[in-house]
Protein backbone atom coordinates (compact mmCIF):
# COMPACT_ATOMS: atom_id res chain seq x y z
CA UNK A 1 0.00 0.00 0.00
CA UNK A 2 1.59 3.29 -1.14
CA UNK A 3 1.36 6.64 0.58
CA UNK A 4 -1.31 7.93 -1.81
CA UNK A 5 -3.70 5.07 -1.03
CA UNK A 6 -3.17 5.65 2.69
CA UNK A 7 -4.12 9.32 2.34
CA UNK A 8 -7.07 8.37 0.12
CA UNK A 9 -8.38 5.97 2.78
CA UNK A 10 -7.81 8.57 5.48
CA UNK A 11 -9.78 11.13 3.49
CA UNK A 12 -12.60 8.67 2.72
CA UNK A 13 -13.13 7.81 6.38
CA UNK A 14 -12.91 11.37 7.64
CA UNK A 15 -15.58 14.05 7.65
CA UNK A 16 -14.03 15.83 4.66
CA UNK A 17 -15.23 13.09 2.28
CA UNK A 18 -18.85 14.06 2.83
CA UNK A 19 -18.45 17.84 3.08
CA UNK A 20 -20.64 19.88 0.73
CA UNK A 21 -19.67 22.97 -1.27
CA UNK A 22 -21.89 25.12 0.93
CA UNK A 23 -19.94 24.00 3.98
CA UNK A 24 -16.66 24.65 2.18
CA UNK A 25 -17.81 28.20 1.43
CA UNK A 26 -18.81 28.66 5.06
CA UNK A 27 -15.43 27.50 6.32
CA UNK A 28 -13.56 29.58 3.78
CA UNK A 29 -15.45 32.71 4.76
CA UNK A 30 -14.83 32.04 8.44
CA UNK A 31 -11.09 31.59 7.88
CA UNK A 32 -10.90 34.80 5.79
CA UNK A 33 -12.72 36.73 8.47
CA UNK A 34 -10.51 35.19 11.14
CA UNK A 35 -7.40 36.24 9.19
CA UNK A 36 -8.68 39.78 8.76
CA UNK A 37 -9.59 40.08 12.43
CA UNK A 38 -6.32 38.78 13.80
CA UNK A 39 -3.70 39.64 11.19
CA UNK A 40 -5.09 42.84 9.72
CA UNK A 41 -6.91 43.98 12.87
CA UNK A 42 -10.09 44.74 10.87
CA UNK A 43 -12.78 45.17 13.51
CA UNK A 44 -11.65 42.16 15.65
CA UNK A 45 -14.40 42.68 18.22
CA UNK A 46 -16.96 42.29 15.45
CA UNK A 47 -15.32 39.71 13.21
CA UNK A 48 -14.19 37.25 15.90
CA UNK A 49 -17.73 36.60 17.23
CA UNK A 50 -18.93 36.21 13.64
CA UNK A 51 -16.16 33.68 12.94
CA UNK A 52 -16.91 31.71 16.09
CA UNK A 53 -20.59 31.68 15.23
CA UNK A 54 -19.84 30.39 11.72
CA UNK A 55 -17.54 27.68 13.09
CA UNK A 56 -20.20 26.70 15.64
CA UNK A 57 -22.82 26.15 12.95
CA UNK A 58 -20.26 24.43 10.73
CA UNK A 59 -19.42 21.82 13.38
CA UNK A 60 -23.14 21.25 14.04
CA UNK A 61 -23.84 20.63 10.38
CA UNK A 62 -20.78 18.40 10.03
CA UNK A 63 -21.63 16.35 13.12
CA UNK A 64 -25.31 16.07 12.18
CA UNK A 65 -24.36 14.66 8.79
CA UNK A 66 -21.57 12.29 9.78
CA UNK A 67 -21.99 11.14 13.39
CA UNK A 68 -23.66 7.78 12.56
CA UNK A 69 -21.60 7.01 9.46
CA UNK A 70 -19.64 3.74 9.86
CA UNK A 71 -21.04 3.36 13.37
CA UNK A 72 -22.26 -0.10 14.41
CA UNK A 73 -23.83 -1.15 17.69
CA UNK A 74 -24.45 -4.81 18.51
CA UNK A 75 -26.05 -6.40 21.57
CA UNK A 76 -25.45 -10.13 22.07
CA UNK A 77 -25.09 -12.83 24.71
CA UNK A 78 -22.03 -14.99 25.18
CA UNK A 79 -24.23 -18.09 24.91
CA UNK A 80 -27.56 -18.97 23.31
CA UNK A 81 -29.25 -20.29 26.43
CA UNK A 82 -28.92 -20.89 30.14
CA UNK A 83 -31.01 -22.79 32.65
CA UNK A 84 -33.21 -20.88 35.04
CA UNK A 85 -31.11 -19.52 37.88
CA UNK A 86 -27.83 -19.59 35.95
CA UNK A 87 -25.73 -16.64 34.81
CA UNK A 88 -24.52 -15.41 31.43
CA UNK A 89 -22.93 -12.27 29.99
CA UNK A 90 -24.54 -9.63 27.83
CA UNK A 91 -22.00 -8.07 25.48
CA UNK A 92 -22.27 -4.52 24.10
CA UNK A 93 -20.02 -3.96 21.07
CA UNK A 94 -19.60 -0.48 19.56
CA UNK A 95 -17.41 0.21 16.51
CA UNK A 96 -16.73 3.79 15.40
CA UNK A 97 -14.93 3.13 12.11
CA UNK A 98 -14.23 6.71 11.02
CA UNK A 99 -11.97 9.65 11.82
CA UNK A 100 -14.70 11.58 13.63
CA UNK A 101 -14.72 11.09 17.40
CA UNK A 102 -17.96 10.84 19.33
CA UNK A 103 -17.56 12.60 22.68
CA UNK A 104 -20.77 11.17 24.15
CA UNK A 105 -22.53 8.02 23.00
CA UNK A 106 -25.51 6.72 24.96
CA UNK A 107 -26.69 3.20 24.11
CA UNK A 108 -30.13 2.18 25.35
CA UNK A 109 -32.25 -0.93 24.96
CA UNK A 110 -35.22 -2.64 26.59
CA UNK A 111 -35.29 -6.22 27.86
CA UNK A 112 -37.54 -8.36 30.02
CA UNK A 113 -37.13 -7.81 33.74
CA UNK A 114 -36.79 -11.59 34.19
CA UNK A 115 -33.24 -11.34 32.86
CA UNK A 116 -31.68 -9.28 35.62
CA UNK A 117 -28.43 -7.31 35.60
CA UNK A 118 -26.11 -7.77 38.54
CA UNK A 119 -25.13 -4.10 38.22
CA UNK A 120 -28.40 -2.13 38.11
CA UNK A 121 -26.75 1.30 38.31
CA UNK A 122 -27.80 2.27 34.76
CA UNK A 123 -31.04 0.25 34.74
CA UNK A 124 -34.65 1.20 35.38
CA UNK A 125 -36.91 -1.74 36.19
CA UNK A 126 -40.71 -1.75 35.83
CA UNK A 127 -42.51 -4.26 33.62
CA UNK A 128 -39.34 -4.15 31.49
CA UNK A 129 -35.71 -3.39 32.22
CA UNK A 130 -34.56 -0.16 30.57
CA UNK A 131 -30.78 -0.09 30.26
CA UNK A 132 -28.78 3.03 29.38
CA UNK A 133 -24.96 2.94 29.11
CA UNK A 134 -22.70 5.90 28.21
CA UNK A 135 -19.52 5.61 26.14
CA UNK A 136 -16.90 7.87 24.53
CA UNK A 137 -15.81 6.62 21.12
CA UNK A 138 -12.60 8.03 19.76
CA UNK A 139 -11.28 7.79 16.20
CA UNK A 140 -11.61 4.27 14.71
CA UNK A 141 -12.22 2.62 18.04
CA UNK A 142 -13.89 -0.64 19.00
CA UNK A 143 -15.49 -0.78 22.47
CA UNK A 144 -16.67 -3.97 24.17
CA UNK A 145 -18.46 -3.99 27.51
CA UNK A 146 -19.57 -7.17 29.29
CA UNK A 147 -22.51 -7.10 31.71
CA UNK A 148 -23.27 -10.16 33.88
CA UNK A 149 -26.95 -11.17 33.84
CA UNK A 150 -28.98 -13.85 35.58
CA UNK A 151 -31.97 -15.78 34.27
CA UNK A 152 -34.64 -15.23 36.91
CA UNK A 153 -37.49 -16.99 35.09
CA UNK A 154 -37.93 -19.46 32.25
CA UNK A 155 -38.67 -17.74 28.97
CA UNK A 156 -37.73 -16.70 25.46
CA UNK A 157 -36.34 -13.16 25.36
CA UNK A 158 -35.52 -10.83 22.47
CA UNK A 159 -33.85 -7.46 21.99
CA UNK A 160 -35.26 -6.02 18.78
CA UNK A 161 -33.76 -2.53 18.69
CA UNK A 162 -31.12 -0.29 20.22
CA UNK A 163 -31.47 3.47 20.60
CA UNK A 164 -28.20 5.39 20.25
CA UNK A 165 -27.96 9.04 21.31
CA UNK A 166 -25.00 11.33 20.72
CA UNK A 167 -24.11 15.03 21.15
CA UNK A 168 -21.93 17.33 19.08
CA UNK A 169 -18.55 18.62 20.26
CA UNK A 170 -20.06 21.54 22.14
CA UNK A 171 -22.86 19.42 23.65
CA UNK A 172 -25.53 21.68 22.17
CA UNK A 173 -27.44 19.36 19.82
CA UNK A 174 -28.67 15.81 20.37
CA UNK A 175 -28.71 13.19 17.62
CA UNK A 176 -30.72 9.94 17.86
CA UNK A 177 -30.61 6.80 15.72
CA UNK A 178 -32.12 3.34 16.01
CA UNK A 179 -30.09 0.22 15.27
CA UNK A 180 -32.10 -2.98 14.70
CA UNK A 181 -31.01 -6.04 16.65
CA UNK A 182 -31.73 -9.75 16.28
CA UNK A 183 -30.72 -10.84 19.75
CA UNK A 184 -32.42 -13.98 21.08
CA UNK A 185 -31.88 -15.59 24.43
CA UNK A 186 -33.44 -18.66 26.06
CA UNK A 187 -33.80 -19.30 29.76
CA UNK A 188 -34.60 -23.01 29.84
CA UNK A 189 -36.74 -24.73 32.49
CA UNK A 190 -34.86 -25.28 35.72
CA UNK A 191 -33.17 -28.60 36.37
CA UNK A 192 -34.79 -31.01 38.83
CA UNK A 193 -32.53 -33.09 41.04
CA UNK A 194 -32.19 -36.79 40.28
CA UNK A 195 -33.55 -37.73 43.69
CA UNK A 196 -36.83 -35.91 43.02
CA UNK A 197 -37.35 -37.18 39.48
CA UNK A 198 -36.38 -40.79 40.21
CA UNK A 199 -39.76 -41.95 41.54
CA UNK A 200 -41.99 -40.76 38.67
CA UNK A 201 -39.42 -41.84 36.10
CA UNK A 202 -39.15 -45.33 37.57
CA UNK A 203 -42.95 -45.64 37.48
CA UNK A 204 -43.00 -44.69 33.80
CA UNK A 205 -40.27 -47.18 32.94
CA UNK A 206 -42.03 -49.87 34.98
CA UNK A 207 -45.22 -49.41 32.97
CA UNK A 208 -43.30 -49.54 29.70
CA UNK A 209 -41.58 -52.78 30.71
CA UNK A 210 -44.84 -54.40 31.83
CA UNK A 211 -46.54 -53.42 28.57
CA UNK A 212 -43.73 -55.07 26.60
CA UNK A 213 -44.22 -58.29 28.52
CA UNK A 214 -47.96 -58.34 28.05
CA UNK A 215 -48.04 -57.64 24.33
CA UNK A 216 -45.64 -60.13 22.76
CA UNK A 217 -45.53 -60.24 18.99
CA UNK A 218 -45.21 -63.82 17.65
CA UNK A 219 -43.46 -62.51 14.54
CA UNK A 220 -40.66 -60.82 16.51
CA UNK A 221 -38.34 -63.70 17.50
CA UNK A 222 -35.94 -62.85 20.36
CA UNK A 223 -34.45 -66.23 21.40
CA UNK A 224 -35.05 -69.55 23.17
CA UNK A 225 -35.23 -70.30 26.89
CA UNK A 226 -36.25 -73.16 29.20
CA UNK A 227 -39.92 -74.02 29.55
CA UNK A 228 -41.92 -72.77 32.54
CA UNK A 229 -45.28 -74.07 33.73
CA UNK A 230 -46.92 -70.72 32.94
CA UNK A 231 -45.82 -70.82 29.29
CA UNK A 232 -48.51 -71.53 26.66
CA UNK A 233 -48.06 -74.74 24.70
CA UNK A 234 -48.05 -72.82 21.42
CA UNK A 235 -44.69 -71.24 22.31
CA UNK A 236 -42.85 -74.56 22.70
CA UNK A 237 -40.12 -75.04 20.09
CA UNK A 238 -40.44 -78.81 19.42
CA UNK A 239 -37.41 -79.10 17.16
CA UNK A 240 -35.11 -77.38 19.63
CA UNK A 241 -36.62 -79.42 22.49
CA UNK A 242 -35.95 -82.68 20.64
CA UNK A 243 -32.33 -81.77 20.01
CA UNK A 244 -31.72 -80.57 23.55
CA UNK A 245 -33.64 -83.27 25.35
CA UNK A 246 -35.69 -80.76 27.38
CA UNK A 247 -38.61 -78.49 26.73
CA UNK A 248 -37.62 -75.11 25.25
CA UNK A 249 -39.87 -72.21 24.35
CA UNK A 250 -39.54 -69.30 21.93
CA UNK A 251 -39.18 -65.76 23.26
CA UNK A 252 -40.76 -62.85 21.41
CA UNK A 253 -40.16 -59.13 21.46
CA UNK A 254 -42.96 -56.64 21.70
CA UNK A 255 -43.84 -54.44 18.75
CA UNK A 256 -45.91 -52.24 21.01
CA UNK A 257 -44.92 -48.63 20.44
CA UNK A 258 -42.38 -47.46 23.00
CA UNK A 259 -43.75 -43.95 22.87
CA UNK A 260 -44.74 -41.68 25.71
CA UNK A 261 -47.10 -38.75 25.24
CA UNK A 262 -46.69 -36.06 27.88
CA UNK A 263 -49.77 -33.92 28.47
CA UNK A 264 -48.78 -30.65 30.11
CA UNK A 265 -51.26 -28.31 31.78
CA UNK A 266 -50.27 -24.61 31.92
CA UNK A 267 -53.56 -23.05 32.97
CA UNK A 268 -53.44 -20.17 35.42
CA UNK A 269 -51.21 -17.21 36.17
CA UNK A 270 -51.08 -14.36 38.65
CA UNK A 271 -50.50 -15.78 42.09
CA UNK A 272 -47.13 -16.91 43.39
CA UNK A 273 -48.44 -20.41 44.17
CA UNK A 274 -49.97 -20.89 40.71
CA UNK A 275 -46.83 -19.66 38.97
CA UNK A 276 -44.63 -21.95 41.07
CA UNK A 277 -46.83 -24.98 40.30
CA UNK A 278 -46.80 -24.23 36.57
CA UNK A 279 -43.02 -23.77 36.46
CA UNK A 280 -42.54 -26.99 38.39
CA UNK A 281 -44.82 -28.84 35.97
CA UNK A 282 -42.84 -27.56 32.98
CA UNK A 283 -39.53 -28.51 34.60
CA UNK A 284 -40.86 -32.01 35.35
CA UNK A 285 -41.93 -32.43 31.72
CA UNK A 286 -38.50 -31.29 30.46
CA UNK A 287 -36.58 -33.55 32.84
CA UNK A 288 -38.68 -36.66 32.22
CA UNK A 289 -38.60 -36.18 28.44
CA UNK A 290 -34.83 -35.71 28.41
CA UNK A 291 -34.28 -38.90 30.38
CA UNK A 292 -36.64 -40.93 28.19
CA UNK A 293 -35.05 -39.64 24.99
CA UNK A 294 -31.64 -40.62 26.34
CA UNK A 295 -33.00 -44.15 26.96
CA UNK A 296 -34.25 -44.50 23.38
CA UNK A 297 -37.94 -43.86 24.08
CA UNK A 298 -39.92 -41.69 21.67
CA UNK A 299 -41.59 -38.71 23.32
CA UNK A 300 -44.18 -36.19 22.26
CA UNK A 301 -45.37 -33.26 24.34
CA UNK A 302 -48.82 -31.69 24.00
CA UNK A 303 -49.83 -28.69 26.07
CA UNK A 304 -52.63 -26.16 26.30
CA UNK A 305 -49.91 -23.53 26.82
CA UNK A 306 -49.27 -21.09 23.97
CA UNK A 307 -45.98 -20.92 22.08
CA UNK A 308 -44.95 -17.25 22.19
CA UNK A 309 -43.34 -17.50 18.74
CA UNK A 310 -46.11 -19.00 16.59
CA UNK A 311 -49.08 -18.27 18.89
CA UNK A 312 -50.32 -21.88 18.84
CA UNK A 313 -50.76 -24.57 21.47
CA UNK A 314 -47.62 -26.61 21.92
CA UNK A 315 -47.45 -29.90 20.05
CA UNK A 316 -43.94 -31.16 19.38
CA UNK A 317 -44.78 -34.25 17.37
CA UNK A 318 -42.78 -37.43 17.94
CA UNK A 319 -39.22 -36.80 19.12
CA UNK A 320 -36.49 -39.46 19.16
CA UNK A 321 -32.88 -39.43 20.27
CA UNK A 322 -31.06 -37.50 22.98
CA UNK A 323 -30.14 -34.75 20.50
CA UNK A 324 -33.75 -33.54 20.44
CA UNK A 325 -33.78 -32.82 24.18
CA UNK A 326 -32.40 -29.29 23.73
CA UNK A 327 -35.00 -28.57 21.03
CA UNK A 328 -37.73 -29.66 23.43
CA UNK A 329 -36.38 -27.50 26.25
CA UNK A 330 -36.33 -24.50 23.93
CA UNK A 331 -39.96 -25.12 22.99
CA UNK A 332 -40.89 -25.40 26.66
CA UNK A 333 -39.02 -22.15 27.39
CA UNK A 334 -41.29 -20.39 24.88
CA UNK A 335 -44.42 -21.73 26.55
CA UNK A 336 -46.80 -19.10 27.93
CA UNK A 337 -49.10 -19.80 30.87
CA UNK A 338 -52.40 -17.91 30.85
CA UNK A 339 -55.79 -17.89 32.51
CA UNK A 340 -57.74 -18.20 29.25
CA UNK A 341 -56.20 -21.47 28.05
CA UNK A 342 -58.19 -24.50 26.98
CA UNK A 343 -59.16 -26.43 30.16
CA UNK A 344 -57.36 -29.75 30.46
CA UNK A 345 -60.57 -31.89 30.45
CA UNK A 346 -61.56 -30.26 27.15
CA UNK A 347 -58.12 -30.85 25.68
CA UNK A 348 -58.25 -34.54 26.71
CA UNK A 349 -61.61 -34.95 24.99
CA UNK A 350 -60.23 -33.27 21.87
CA UNK A 351 -57.26 -35.64 21.79
CA UNK A 352 -59.43 -38.74 22.19
CA UNK A 353 -60.31 -39.00 18.47
CA UNK A 354 -56.67 -39.13 17.38
CA UNK A 355 -55.38 -41.14 20.34
CA UNK A 356 -52.98 -44.04 19.85
CA UNK A 357 -53.88 -46.92 22.10
CA UNK A 358 -50.29 -48.14 22.25
CA UNK A 359 -48.94 -44.86 23.67
CA UNK A 360 -48.30 -44.40 27.36
CA UNK A 361 -49.86 -41.15 28.53
CA UNK A 362 -48.28 -39.06 31.29
CA UNK A 363 -50.40 -36.15 32.48
CA UNK A 364 -48.71 -33.32 34.38
CA UNK A 365 -51.38 -31.06 35.81
CA UNK A 366 -52.07 -29.23 39.04
CA UNK A 367 -55.84 -29.26 38.35
CA UNK A 368 -57.80 -30.57 41.34
CA UNK A 369 -61.16 -28.88 40.78
CA UNK A 370 -62.26 -29.91 37.29
CA UNK A 371 -63.04 -33.59 36.57
CA UNK A 372 -59.80 -34.51 34.81
CA UNK A 373 -59.62 -38.18 35.78
CA UNK A 374 -62.67 -39.48 33.80
CA UNK A 375 -61.45 -37.79 30.61
CA UNK A 376 -57.94 -39.19 31.09
CA UNK A 377 -59.36 -42.70 31.54
CA UNK A 378 -61.44 -42.26 28.38
CA UNK A 379 -58.38 -41.11 26.45
CA UNK A 380 -56.30 -44.12 27.47
CA UNK A 381 -59.27 -46.51 26.92
CA UNK A 382 -58.54 -48.38 30.12
CA UNK A 383 -54.80 -48.71 29.57
CA UNK A 384 -52.34 -47.68 32.25
CA UNK A 385 -51.44 -44.00 32.59
CA UNK A 386 -49.68 -41.74 35.07
CA UNK A 387 -50.84 -38.42 36.46
CA UNK A 388 -48.11 -36.33 38.06
CA UNK A 389 -49.93 -33.87 40.32
CA UNK A 390 -47.92 -30.82 41.50
CA UNK A 391 -49.62 -29.39 44.58
CA UNK A 392 -48.97 -26.76 47.20
CA UNK A 393 -47.57 -28.36 50.34
CA UNK A 394 -49.68 -25.92 52.40
CA UNK A 395 -52.97 -26.82 50.71
CA UNK A 396 -55.62 -27.96 53.22
CA UNK A 397 -56.53 -31.64 52.94
CA UNK A 398 -60.18 -30.87 52.18
CA UNK A 399 -59.17 -29.23 48.89
CA UNK A 400 -56.95 -32.07 47.68
CA UNK A 401 -57.96 -34.61 45.08
CA UNK A 402 -59.52 -37.71 46.63
CA UNK A 403 -60.53 -39.62 43.48
CA UNK A 404 -58.72 -42.82 42.57
CA UNK A 405 -58.51 -44.94 39.45
CA UNK A 406 -57.55 -48.51 38.64
CA UNK A 407 -55.76 -47.58 35.42
CA UNK A 408 -54.32 -44.15 36.30
CA UNK A 409 -51.62 -43.94 38.93
CA UNK A 410 -51.48 -40.54 40.64
CA UNK A 411 -48.05 -39.34 41.74
CA UNK A 412 -48.22 -36.29 44.02
CA UNK A 413 -45.43 -33.73 43.83
CA UNK A 414 -45.28 -31.22 46.65
CA UNK A 415 -44.08 -27.70 45.86
Commentary on this structure:
With 415 residues, the chain is an alpha/beta fold. 31% of the residues lie in helices and 33% in strands. The protein contains 9 helices and 19 strands. The protein has helices at 3-12, 21-38, 44-66, 194-214, 238-244, 272-294, 325-333, 344-352, 372-380, and strands at residues 71-77, 81-83, 87-96, 102-112, 115-117, 123-125, 128-137, 141-151, 155-167, 174-188, 221-226, 248-252, 259-264, 298-307, 313-315, 335-336, 360-364, 385-391, 408-414. Helix 6 (272-294) runs antiparallel to helix 7. It is elongated and about 130 Å long. It starts with a helix and ends with a strand.
Provide the structure class.
alpha/beta
What low-confidence regions span 5 or more consecutive residues with pLDDT below 50? none
**Could you state the order of secondary-structure elements as H and E?**
HHHEEEEEEEEEEHEHEEHEEHEHEHEE
What's the total number of strands?
19
Distance, first to last CA:
69 Å
Q: What count of helical segments does DSSP give?
A: 9
Gyration radius, rounded: 35 Å
> Helical proportion?
25-40%
What composes the largest sheet? 7 strands, mixed
The overall pLDDT average reads 82
Strand coverage percent:
25-35%
Question: What overall geometry do the principal axes of the alpha carbons give?
Answer: elongated
Identify the notable features of this structure and list them briefly.
alpha/beta; 31% helix; six-stranded mixed sheet; 415 residues; 19 strands
List the helices and strands and how they pair.
Layout: H1 3-12, H2 21-38, H3 44-66, E1 71-77, E2 81-83, E3 87-96, E4 102-112, E5 115-117, E6 123-125, E7 128-137, E8 141-151, E9 155-167, E10 174-188, H4 194-214, E11 221-226, H5 238-244, E12 248-252, E13 259-264, H6 272-294, E14 298-307, E15 313-315, H7 325-333, E16 335-336, H8 344-352, E17 360-364, H9 372-380, E18 385-391, E19 408-414
Parallel strand pairs: 2-10, 13-14, 13-17, 17-18, 18-19
Antiparallel strand pairs: 1-3, 3-8, 4-7, 4-9, 5-8, 6-7, 9-10, 11-12, 14-15, 14-16
Helix pairs in contact: 2-3, 6-7, 8-9
